[in-house]
Write a structure and sequence with these properties.
- The complex is a heterotrimer of chains A (about 350), B (about 300) and C (about 350).
- With about 350 residues, chain A is of the alpha/beta class.
- Chain A has 13 helices and twelve strands.
- In chain A, strand 1 and strand 2 form a beta hairpin.
- In chain A, helix 6 packs parallel to helix 7.
- The N and C termini of chain A lie far apart (about 45 Å).
- Chain B is about 75% helix and about 0% strand.
- Chain B contains eleven helices and no strands.
- In chain B, helix 9 packs parallel to helix 10 and helix 10 packs antiparallel against helix 11.
- The radius of gyration of chain B is 24 Å and the shape is elongated.
- Chain C has about 350 residues and is mostly helical.
- Chain C is flat, with a radius of gyration of 26 Å.
- The chains are: A alpha/beta (about 350), B mainly alpha (about 300), C mainly alpha (about 350).
- The interface between A and C is large, with 41 and 32 residues.
Chain lengths: ~350, ~300, ~350
């Protein structure tokens, strides 16, 4: 049984201008000890997915589908069971730890809070010991335990968030843009820390970011989202270096590889903007920005088709390649073989 | 020879933009029901005040000419009863609206002018990089803070008593005690405006302080100033009421506060209760109307402020 | 170097500085004491300026200060001479000011015109009733007002919120003395449940329980008026502070931890919302004073407010002067207390 399973998850926001679908039928699986990266630009729905897992969306959001944590559907849980699952079953590291910590409470109290909540028999001494242990795991000196959030730097605050997320020994951690607000050096440290902790404790991790290169390094599997849907999924390194879906490819190529001549020679970036969730193009939602779009792309509904071993992509060209080339070993795109850029 | 035919002047563009912004603002304002109710009440009150001579003869205010029985309950000719001099309460109420609103507006105007000047000057000079600028800001803010700390009523009492009872004194006293709140808010907004690029550009082009403050800072704090002014009127009307009630007002010009003063002095609980209740209700309505309109103004202007 | 890279470099430098600063500092005790003393000194300076202002208003402004001082009294020529000497009329201004300062600091606030006793005595006698009235009303209105504000802000848009906000807005728009007079008519005139004024009944129980209950009986109506008036402001301020906090990220974190709604509110939202509330209430403390003055007048409550009203109408300038000084000092002191509270309870302020 998978640790986390999202089945046909759909989230629609009720707004003044009508219902806005932020997530449109997403299926994802995370097993224990596995890391899944969820990539995409702003507005594609990834943060909505993160919040929906523990039912933290505002009341204006309508959620359908199933969210199974260890087989139990979160959406059907009673409030009591939900509160018990929150933090103890799965915890979240929010983006922008700047404001995710209570400004007028010491961090030791904030880290201890979920511990005391979920294990009410814990004595204050035990709680302090655990807080010190957690701070040690994230590389913060115990002397900082009595600090207030504003006394810490951005990197330190993020470490506190990580320590807090580990407090109740959850099986699953959802990290929503954990390093976006940090600068590069600190970013590397925090990512290493997360990877190490996940490895040591055998935790399942979903990491959400718009930075594909970061995810490719840190995660086992990678899923790319566009306009509320998953457009490609597979082993992280493969998706990054050899994407099947044009959007995933464009996203990957947006992060230059130093020393790779192809990067220097081929143009990067996509024309246009990600679509407004309230007004998504028909058929394949990417077709209006795609360089290799065909006629059927604007009319045919896309699904995730197999694009290799344990790989999926929602592009007709993948489907055609899989259908047409039976027997032939799976080869990378023709265009790449000839040396021209995919976007050329 | 060329003729400047279809060149649209810059001024025209600016006015078009302003008109469109105004239309958009009005649309936002209209959405708020409480704001519309407040606006209606205000308009009615102001119309009543302006149309007072048409609604009730001013002779009804003269106690010597009063023919109605004193302290009477409501009757056809005096729907709200009469006061201890036999004057119709309704007549007094209608004419009183003039005084109350006049004092409210005049005192607010005074307070707004002082507050805006101090706020803009402090905010503008506060961002300068020499020594003199921030010091000016500092001094002005200390004075403002001092005024803020001093309790209003004792100060007003002391000033009014020393200067004597008259309409002008009341306006003056309320005006010079109400400006600190406005000054602080305007200063905060001026500081925000000062950081905008076009201020820096105008400085680079050699614009003097006066030009910068009047042509750039002032128009941009205007909307906030307007909203704040409306809210201040609510406060000044209450202040005038209190001062009149305590006996510091001009007894010959019967504002609503004066009516309450007279009612109090002739003995609470004796006579016509409406003499007491009516002015109070009128004050509540007017103050609430100004408050609702002021808050709705702020909210409707907010998108602009947020764009900061 | 692009501006984005520059920002990045600056941010990195900032991070480093913060790391160092964070390591070195932790809200030291010495820093706190220094901060507090600065605030106390600042309050004293403000008070000094009030005294100067008083002097300016009463001794410098009027054309003939002595005449002003004795207006309405009948005094013999020798008594006038004494007054003139005491108040230093005819002496150069700086000398007058020095005398005035010395007298004020010794508590010689002048002689009341109306009662011919020292102003200090008049004020002293009136102090306790005002403290009783204002004190009890403030305590009640704070407790009730904060509770209403929290409930209204948290369940924003609910029936409770809309009703309580409408009521509070109406109370806030109401002249407090008018409310007092209306209550007098209803509860003391029409239905004689409460006394029509004063603090004690004639000949009514002068000792023990009877005396206390008589006092409370007289205290009820004016206290109700003041409580309602203060409560309106406190609840509106608390409500708006809480609403400001509602969108904060740390509340989402608290919910994600599995806390119940009420816990999130009590442990996280309210402590943060209380801090700006203290500041906002601080700015309006003069409101408390004016409420006291008008309410005491309506109910003939023999406190400082009624004394001011009587002094105002006589006119008894020395008492007015003394009352103004005392009221200002009270508000300055209250502001200082609120400021100190903020310094103690908001860790971010301490750092500054």
């Amino acid at each position: 049984m998978a640790l986390l399973e999202l089945r046909d998850l759909t989230v629609t926001y009720r707004t003044e201008g009508g219902p806005v679908p932020a997530v449109r039928g997403v299926n994802l699986t995370v097993d224990t000890g596995q890391t899944l990266g969820l990539a995409g630009e702003s507005g594609c729905g990834k943060s909505t997915i993160a919040a929906s897992i523990l039912r933290l969306l505002p009341t204006s959001a309508k959620v359908t589908g199933e969210i199974l944590i260890d087989g139990d559907d979160v959406l059907k849980m009673s409030w009591g069971k939900l509160r018990a699952v929150r933090w103890a079953g799965a915890s979240i590291i929010f983006q922008g730890a700047m404001h995710s910590l209570n400004p007028v409470q010491k961090i030791s109290k904030q880290i201890a809070e979920p511990i005391l909540l979920h294990s009410p028999d814990t004595t204050p001494t035990q709680a302090s010991k655990r807080v010190a242990e957690l701070l040690g795991q994230v590389g913060l000196p115990v002397s900082r335990a009595d600090s207030y959030p504003h006394e810490l730097s951005g990197g330190q605050k993020q470490r506190v968030m990580i320590a807090m997320a580990l407090a109740c020994r959850p099986n699953l951690i959802i990290a929503d843009e954990p390093t976006t607000a940090l600068d590069v050096m600190i970013q590397a440290q925090v990512l290493d820390l997360i990877s190490a902790l996940v490895r040591d404790h055998g935790i399942g991790l979903i990491m959400i970011s718009h930075d594909l290169s970061v995810l490719a390094d840190t995660c086992d599997r990678l899923a790319v989202m566009y306009a509320g849907k998953i457009v490609e999924e597979g082993p992280a390194h493969q998706v990054f270096t050899d994407a099947r879906h044009p959007y995933a490819e464009a996203l990957a190529w947006a992060f230059p590889v130093i020393g790779d001549p192809r990067t220097r020679l081929s143009p990067r970036g996509l024309p246009g903007d990600p679509p407004d969730p309230a007004d998504v193009p028909s058929g394949c939602s990417f077709h209006n920005r795609c360089a290799v779009a065909e006629d059927q792309c604007s009319t045919r509904d896309m699904e995730l088709w197999p694009a290799g071993e344990r790989r999926l992509a929602a592009c007709v060209r993948v489907l055609e390649a899989a259908e047409g080339e039976s027997g032939r070993p799976f080869v990378a795109n023709e265009e790449k073989a000839t040396g021209e850029g995919v976007l050329g | 020879m060329t003729t400047a035919t279809s060149v649209i002047g810059g001024r025209q563009i600016a006015w078009d933009r302003r008109r469109r912004a105004l239309a958009a603002f009005w649309r936002r304002y209209r959405k708020d029901r409480s704001g519309m109710i407040g606006l209606v009440i205000l308009v009615v009150m102001i119309l009543v005040a302006l149309a007072a001579p048409l609604l009730a003869s001013s002779r009804g205010l003269n106690p010597g000419l009063a023919t109605y029985p004193a302290n009477a309950g409501p009757a056809l000719r005096y729907p709200l009863g009469t006061d201890s001099d036999g004057r119709s309460v309704l007549t007094e109420l209608i004419w009183g609206s003039r005084i109350s609103l006049l004092i409210g507006f005049a005192a607010t105007f005074l307070s707004m002018v002082i507050g805006a000047i101090i706020g803009i000057v402090a905010g503008h000079f506060g961002t300068l990089r020499n020594w003199f600028g921030p010091q000016t800001d500092n001094v002005l803010m200390r004075i403002t803070d001092w005024f803020l700390v001093i309790p209003f009523l004792p100060l007003a009492i002391v000033l009014a008593r020393t200067l004597g009872p008259s309409l002008h004194v009341i306006i003056f006293v309320i005006g010079i005690t109400s400006w600190p709140g406005t000054a602080r808010i305007i200063r905060a907004q001026a500081l925000a405006v000062e950081t905008r690029p076009y201020l820096e550009r105008s400085r680079a082009l050699g614009a003097g302080h006066w030009h910068q403050m009047s042509k750039h800072v002032l128009p941009n704090v205007m909307p906030l100033l307007l909203a704040n002014t409306i809210l201040t009127v609510a406060g000044t009307i209450l202040s005038e009421t209190t001062l009149s009630f305590l006996g510091l007002g001009d007894p010959t010009r019967a504002s609503w506060g004066e009516m309450l003063n007279a009612a109090f002095n002739s003995g609470v609980g004796t006579g016509n209760a409406l003499w007491l209740v009516a002015p109070g209700v009128a004050i509540i309505l007017v103050v609430m109307a100004f408050t609702l309109v002021g808050h709705t103004l702020e909210a409707a202007l907010n998108p602009k402020l947020r764009e900061r | 170097m692009s501006s984005a890279m520059l920002d990045g470099a600056l941010a990195a430098a900032q991070e480093l500085r913060e790391e160092e600063a964070g390591a070195a500092n932790g809200g030291t005790g010495l820093g706190l004491v220094r901060l507090l003393s600065v605030k106390v000194v600042s309050a004293l300076i403000t008070l000094f300026f009030v005294i100067v202002f008083n002097f300016f208003l009463f001794r410098v402004l009027p054309a003939d200060p002595a005449r002003n001082l004795v207006r309405g009294s009948t005094l013999t020529a020798s008594q006038m001479a004494v007054i003139n000497r005491t108040f230093g009329v005819g002496l150069p201004l700086p000398r007058q000011f020095w005398n005035y300062l010395a007298q004020t600091f010794q508590g010689h606030l002048g002689i009341s015109f109306q009662f011919h006793i020292p102003v200090a005595s008049v004020i002293g006698a009136a102090l306790w009733p005002t403290i009783l009235l204002v004190g009890s009303s403030t305590v009640l209105s704070t407790i009730i007002g904060v509770w209403i504000g929290i409930r209204a802000g948290w369940d924003r848009g609910s029936t409770f919120d809309r009703t309580s906000t409408a009521i509070c807005n109406t109370l806030y728009a109401m002249p407090d003395f008018w409310l007092g007079m209306v209550l007098l008519i209803v509860f003391a005139s029409k239905w004689a449940i409460f006394p029509a004024g004063g603090m004690h009944s004639f000949g009514g129980g002068s000792t023990g329980f009877a005396s206390v209950s008589d006092l409370l009986w007289h205290l009820t109506l004016p206290a109700v008026v003041l409580t309602l008036v203060y409560l309106a402001e406190y609840s509106l301020v608390m409500r708006s502070s809480l609403i400001d906090e509602l969108g904060s990220d740390y509340l989402l974190t608290a919910r994600a931890k599995g806390l119940r709604d009420a816990m999130v509110r009590r442990r996280h939202a309210v402590p943060n919302a209380l801090l700006p509330s203290i500041t906002l209430i601080m700015l309006n403390l003069g409101f408390v004073i004016s409420g006291a003055i008008t309410t005491e007048t309506v109910f003939s409550w023999p406190g400082l407010g009624l004394a001011s009203y009587n002094a105002l109408n006589y006119p008894d300038y020395p008492v007015l002067e003394g009352a103004f000084l005392l009221f200002s000092a009270a508000v300055i002191a209250a502001n200082l207390v609120a400021d100190l509270l903020l310094t103690v309870f908001d860790p971010r302020v301490r750092q500054a």
